[in-house]
Amino acid sequence: MLEFLETITGVPTPLLFGQILLGLINGAFYAMLSLGLAVIFGLLNIINFTHGAQFMMGAFVAWMLLTWLGLGYWWALILAPLIVGATGVVIERLMISRLYKLDHLYGLLLTFGIGLMIEGFFRNQYGSSGLPYRIPAELSGAWDLGFMFMPVYRGWVVVFSLVVCLATWLVIEKTRLGAYLRAATENAALVQAFGVNVPRMITLTYGAGVALAALAGVLAAPIYSVNPQMGTNLIIVVFAVVVIGGMGSILGSVLTGFGLGVIEGLTKVYWPEASATVIFVIMAIVLLTRPAGLFGRA
Amino acid sequence: MSETSRRSVLAAGAAFAALPLSHARAQAANTIRIALLCDFSGTYRDVTGPNELACVRQAAAEFSNRGFNIEVVYADNQNRADVGSNITRTWIDRDGVDCIVDGGASSVALAVNEVVREKNKVFLNSSSATSDLTGRFCSPNLVHWTYDTYMLAKSTGGATVRAGGDSWYFITADYAFGHALERDTATFVRAAGGRVLGQARTPFPGTSDFSSFLVQAQASRAKVIGLANAGSDTINCIKQASEFGLARRGIKLASLLMFMPDVHSLGLEQTQGLICTETFYWDLNDRTRAFTRRVAGQLQSNVPLCMNHAGGYASVIHYLKAVADMGVARAKENGAEVVARMKAMPCDDDCFGPGSIRQDGRKLHPAYLFEVKAPSESHGRYDYYKLLQTTAGDEGFRPMAEGNCPLVRS
Predict the structure, then answer these.
(1) Which of A286, B3, B57, B280 is deepest in the core (most CB within 10 A)?
(2) Which residues from B are below 8 Å from A221, CB to CB?
(3) ipTM for the complex?
(4) CATH code of the domain containing B309
């Protein structure tokens, strides 16, 4: 069977398995980021273009906690999402909340502008080369899987992000809070009439979406260069993931995130030059055949 | 008011209004405009950008009392060839710029090179890598100052092959620079009896995860992974190679183009023992230290000087010497003549020491092979490099006859 696989793919099977696994790991980042975007879009109808900058802020806050306060990775995993989430709450209260009555485009432009300003600020303060951040001692080292050498930290990223994605889905689909949130998207006035503070709920939802981006940023800090443009590279792909999965569909964005990670990983073996474009080709095909996305409701 | 007196008042007013204009014109004729074009917002910002601007301004300041004015302007090329050539055209056609410094990424520099040649101005390239600038695309209006892919390949590549690294796999940034660096290094590897087992061309910009390519490289069983990339691509590759334990498996990384800011970003813990080639290091000798002290107050606080920044300074100093020598009016009129004068004059500056410029536009100066220090060996801020080997200028760069530069053939 393995030999057959090797013959038809032209790539040694161990290498193929390795690439699928690496694709899943990248997919974990796509899934976590697109999850935050989907939550924000689903409940606020805002296309949050600040998401890449907020992902980057998560990584920078992790670095700041370590360098300035001596607080390591595990603290960063808790504190960075809270701190960056709080900045999200401020942004939502001060600016984004004024745009809910207007067309989507205004929210998109505002968040895009805020993202550029945040990135520019970090670039001026810290330059473009990036800052060092080590893998925590508990997660360094690697497992020999036979077909490849698997760093422990990458395994942790996949498991942790799966748990976060599942937990978010459960909160939104299976709890009373989630039911309020979903009801508020359908008819805010009615939910408010039942005594639920809808504006506060929306603010906290934005904060939670931003915190998810920051959490992904902390996960990324030990393996990617912590630099101001680290979110820019990722966020365009993540938007494509959200569009392919279906805007606002939580399960859709998670599954598409992991799936596209694998497809991109395989492209890196067969046609490395095209690995940056393959996701957009898929996006074009999906938009032409299923405009609402694979899991979206038309 | 009588008709005569009204007319005389109008005439006086007109003469007064024209006064600053003619004064401005006279000033423009006596002003050399230098424009720095490089990355101010992307992955190459720290290895060019604000620090290079400080160095170019330093050069202009050192020439402030030679009887002509110097203006320095700058712009972000966004690492895009179309943006770079459009800015260059606007600068030359509308703003009266006489000299373009840097250019930035090789793809941008190749585009700017053509515009400058067409407009007969001066192009002082201080950070682009491709050796094609002094090869098939060489121009009478260009000086390629700091380094090139051939020199890097010979110095870092050659040293790696001599140390036993005879089978290579390249991870290459998929554009002009990466291709040139891969090509030049592969030539040296093969000439030394080594083999190239494969390569992965990675999309630029936009790749941040290199693990897939590193695993492919490992599967090829090559002893050396040649990084034909720069900036955050190199940083990510080194970081992820250490995560995947490549060094523990006996695989060496050859960082073919690595700058001080990259080392600073990764930290000595992760970079110790790596070798790289630069043509300037702040702590090389008394002159480089003196230069570093002069510009120190104007640099970005967290970004060390590297050879590109020094290249910006030194190339402008030499250009201004040529301008002072031939006169501002002639220098503004004919860029190729200024470059010819620069080639005829011997070079000497604090960053690169004595040197010369060849007919094909190649600036010759020594290349230094450095090893990154271990954290225990580093005793001060930015004390990062140990000098391993010095290659003289005429040996380090590609022999002029091998470059196929049309200027040389003619």
Answers:
(1) B280
(2) none
(3) 0.80
(4) 3.40.50.2300
